[in-house]
Amino acid sequence: VSVTVTVAVDAGGADLGPAEVAAGAGMAAAAGVRVLLFGDAARIGEPPPGVEVIHAPLSIAKEADPARAARAHREASVVRAARAVAEGEAAAFVSGGSTGAALAAGLFEVKRLPGVHRPALAITVPVPGNPVTMLDVGANTEVRPAHLVQFAFLGAGLARTVMGIARPRVALLSNGEEPERGTPLVQAAHAEIAERAAGQDAFEWVGNVEGTGLVAGAADVVVTDGFTGNVALKVMEGVSQVLLGAVREAATSSARGKAGGLLLRPALRGVRDELDPEAYGGAYLLGLRRLGVVPHGRFGREGWAQAILLAARGATGDLVGRTHAALEAAGALRSAPSGEASSVSPS
Amino acid sequence: VSVTVTVAVDAGGADLGPAEVAAGAGMAAAAGVRVLLFGDAARIGEPPPGVEVIHAPLSIAKEADPARAARAHREASVVRAARAVAEGEAAAFVSGGSTGAALAAGLFEVKRLPGVHRPALAITVPVPGNPVTMLDVGANTEVRPAHLVQFAFLGAGLARTVMGIARPRVALLSNGEEPERGTPLVQAAHAEIAERAAGQDAFEWVGNVEGTGLVAGAADVVVTDGFTGNVALKVMEGVSQVLLGAVREAATSSARGKAGGLLLRPALRGVRDELDPEAYGGAYLLGLRRLGVVPHGRFGREGWAQAILLAARGATGDLVGRTHAALEAAGALRSAPSGEASSVSPS
Does the predicted interface ipTM exceed a cut of 0.85? Predict the structure, then answer.
């Protein structure tokens, strides 16, 4: 029995405009997802089949202080998309273009999972041969060791639910593999995760990995703060672009290279497609009572369609419930849960 | 008039053993550098022409606490190589395998430049089309804003002296381009560098860059703490290896791909050689009274030869004097210079 999942989508943050998001929503709808699309109805135009447009012309994606903007503008498209999820009209929300706005709207409307310190952005990067899930990649510029402990369980729940890995290998990103390497934060987190990891079966603890290990398959899930994770993710994207460009260049710089490039093109296209950020749809926002997905603001319709499908898959697989259960089973929820989302200021 | 430069080399930290370092030293000697090689004479064997072996069988490269080991073992090969530089027998030292040991030996024997807070490891990564110098890549896991200000001038002096860039573009690595993005450390460093950059001509200040900008030519010099820099550098190396491996795989997976791969091979070899860490010899250790170079411990003889040539080029170009002059001209030296290297504990 297939149940239709509804995803609430903010059309306000896309670099290419709301109509591009609507086109992506139409592709996701064609794949069986029901979409509520929040944005400027005039700019969206006639919606594709399976997409319902809710007129929400105010976008806060470009605001300098998105947390304040989300609080001040309850009619903003991202806030309305998050509220639709909080009120049960949709199972997950999708908002790209401003991580800060998506996080703030999620915190204010959907609220944190009881016992979770901080939501985190988790992305599965399809490194050829070694897909790796990294979190946090930008929701929290500063964290405490207890936050990183929770990220380990959130990431393990994601790898199990979405990647189908029964007992994911979880590591901590550092500047050396030895447990004593890293900043005081990383050293303390290492000790706390090691302690929590003992005697639980949510994940296998592999200790520290370096940047090389991150992309070489040393772990299925790599935990880090949102500053380091954001830098690492963007270096990965940047190096991929530059290298594939250099290979393309090599394949057009001489008659010999051109002939080789033509013959190799189908195989190289496979490598490029595998690495294309649009192909994997963006990052999960984990740690809220319902699921969020944050795609790149620069995505085209294919990227938006993938982001909506990512949200639908996570909701169907009960990603939120499973990650919460894993945290609870390990005793990694904080003892005095606070429902006050407003006490957390997203960075 | 060509003056022969003498470089003191520690043969103790190489994964492939002292004989491999000796072979690299011989290659550098053939290119005109005089080498003093500190290591186990029995394992080195007959030295190549131009290489003088000084028997120093004790290696501290594998010590868990290299700072303590460097202090306790004044006869260790890395300490003796650094001391040869301090005593004027050589113009620069080279030690690979343990950054901590090289840093500690440099601090204890060579000592910090007057007014410099912390030495930094600076590496020029030959990203195709966009070579970029990044520092710190591992000498200081934790830094203060004033340290990052000095790194900006040290890096600019390096880019000017070794890369020949008259007015290098200097940036700060962050998780967003806006000045208010980043950790409190990065925010404070941004403000301090911006202030120091005004009205000086050592470099052009371009503000924050993200991980994508780091590899896309947004700046000639990118400043960061040793933790983030180490992660970023190793992600760059890791992604390069994985991607070039995937391209190689694509070029052998079918008859068609194989034919294309054969035709493309010379051009692809160019890309690979350009990215090969051995080809660029390692990182400069800047901020001491004399120059240090830290290659990968896993380098083969070509890598060691390049590291020795890198040291010779830096010494010939008076890299230390130029970076110190740039710091002084900008008023970025600390007001009460301390000669007490022992007050700094390398991380």
Answer: yes
